[in-house]
């Protein structure tokens, strides 16, 4: 399996199959120094994608932006900017009444400042306002690109029809268009129960998959380990009572009848490759017909190592054909 996915336009590095997610990093229990050390470990192991955000709505605004600033501190102290691929996001289309274009610029400028850099490798528009014309957004993103402030741009949590609108506009106007799309996607996402704020999260589906195939857009799934649900089930099997299964049933949207059947299938794949089901879940994303970079929230060096080892397990697309929910209805259901 190839370790790298695609060349980033305008830079000297490639996108790795695993990205370091920072959205929840301040809730990890790690100290600031420990988080910085983990970022350095990630880079030294060959990773390069660091996913950050600026959150302008909701109670987590401060926390998420502070995480981005922490990455910026690490960038400044480590001197590893040129071998890092920084992802930042704008929420300019979500519940904000001012000019969308001015908010997009504001979010970019703040991310540049927070991250201690003069350019962003991948800048994503997170969330959508379907009353805003895609032309207005793409034209502004193209301007940022021409100014050298971003190298690539894309979207996050956009409905498939809106992504298609954007790509059709890009083709008609000879623009690069979206090169990256972030979505909720993991081996259990189709058969999960909805999140409380389910309107904010857009899942990969067959229509979106076809758009990725057609336009060669890199998929960057978040929540790629299904909140650790499959890993917790496996841990409890090997250490009975170590996981509060009743709490898992009540609180995890992934605890469904269909996903328990998927778990059984992943155990069989894990037996073949001597791997735990939680990491087999990564193999599912690594072995798709489209290029992927899975965003992970790792809290220790051992978790990072296990994730990197998952790349080298030798999984194949055929291993996951009977749980490929985009070609046909899953035979396990």
Q: Which fold name fills CATH's third level, the topology?
A: TIM Barrel
The value of Rg in angstroms is: 19 Å
Terminal-residue CA separation:
30 Å
What structural class do helix, strand and pairing data support? Answer: alpha/beta
What is the domain total for the residues?
1
Helicity, in percent?
Answer: 40-55%
Task: Please report the number of helical segments.
Answer: 11
Q: CATH homologous superfamily - what is it?
A: NADP-dependent oxidoreductase domain
Give the uncertain stretches in residue-range form. 328-333
Biggest sheet: strand arrangement? 9-8-7-6-5-4-3-10
Assigned CATH architecture: Alpha-Beta Barrel
Mean of pLDDT? 88
* Largest β-sheet summary: 8 strands, parallel
Tally the beta strands.
10
Seen as an oligomer or otherwise, the chain set is single chain
Structure description:
With 333 residues, this protein is α/β, with parallel strands linked by helices. The chain has a single domain, classed as TIM Barrel, CATH 3.20.20.100. 41% of the residues lie in helices and 13% in strands. It has an 8-stranded parallel beta sheet, with helices on one face. A two-stranded antiparallel sheet has the order 1-2. β8, α6 (206-215) and β9 (218-219) form a beta-alpha-beta unit. α7 (229-238) packs antiparallel against α10 and α10 (277-286) crosses α11. The longest helix has 18 residues, at 61-78. The model is unreliable at 328-333 (pLDDT under 50).
């Amino acid at each position: 399996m190839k370790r790298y996915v695609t060349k980033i336009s305008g830079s000297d590095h490639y996108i790795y199959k695993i990205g370091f997610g920072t959205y929840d990093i301040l809730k990890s229990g790690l100290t600031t120094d420990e988080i910085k050390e983990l970022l350095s470990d990630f880079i030294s192991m060959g990773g390069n994608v660091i996913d950050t955000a600026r959150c302008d709505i909701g109670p987590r605004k401060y926390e998420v932006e502070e995480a981005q600033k922490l990455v910026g501190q690490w960038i400044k102290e480590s001197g590893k900017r040129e071998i890092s691929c920084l992802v930042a996001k704008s929420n300019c289309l979500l519940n904000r009444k001012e000019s969308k274009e001015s908010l997009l610029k504001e979010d970019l400028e703040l991310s540049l400042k927070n991250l201690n850099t003069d350019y962003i490798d991948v800048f994503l528009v997170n969330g959508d306002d379907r009353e805003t014309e895609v032309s207005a957004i793409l034209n502004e993103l193209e301007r940022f690109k021409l100014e050298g402030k971003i190298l690539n741009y894309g979207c996050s949590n956009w409905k498939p029809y809106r992504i298609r609108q954007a790509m059709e506009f890009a083709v008609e106007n000879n623009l690069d268009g979206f090169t990256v799309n972030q979505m909720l996607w993991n081996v259990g996402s189709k058969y999960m129960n909805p999140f409380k704020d389910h309107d904010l999260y857009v899942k990969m589906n067959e229509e979106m998959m076809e758009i990725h195939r057609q336009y060669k857009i890199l998929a960057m799934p978040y929540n790629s380990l299904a909140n650790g649900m499959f890993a917790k089930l496996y841990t409890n099997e090997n250490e009975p009572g170590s996981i509060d299964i009743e709490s898992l049933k009540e609180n995890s949207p992934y605890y469904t009848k269909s996903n328990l059947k998927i778990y059984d299938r992943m155990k069989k794949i894990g037996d073949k490759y001597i791997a735990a089901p939680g990491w087999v879940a990564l193999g599912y994303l690594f072995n798709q017909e489209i290029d992927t970079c899975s965003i992970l929230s790792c809290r220790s060096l051992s978790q990072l190592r296990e994730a990197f080892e998952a790349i080298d397990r030798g999984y194949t697309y055929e291993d996951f054909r009977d749980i490929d929910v985009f070609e046909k209805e899953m035979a396990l259901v």
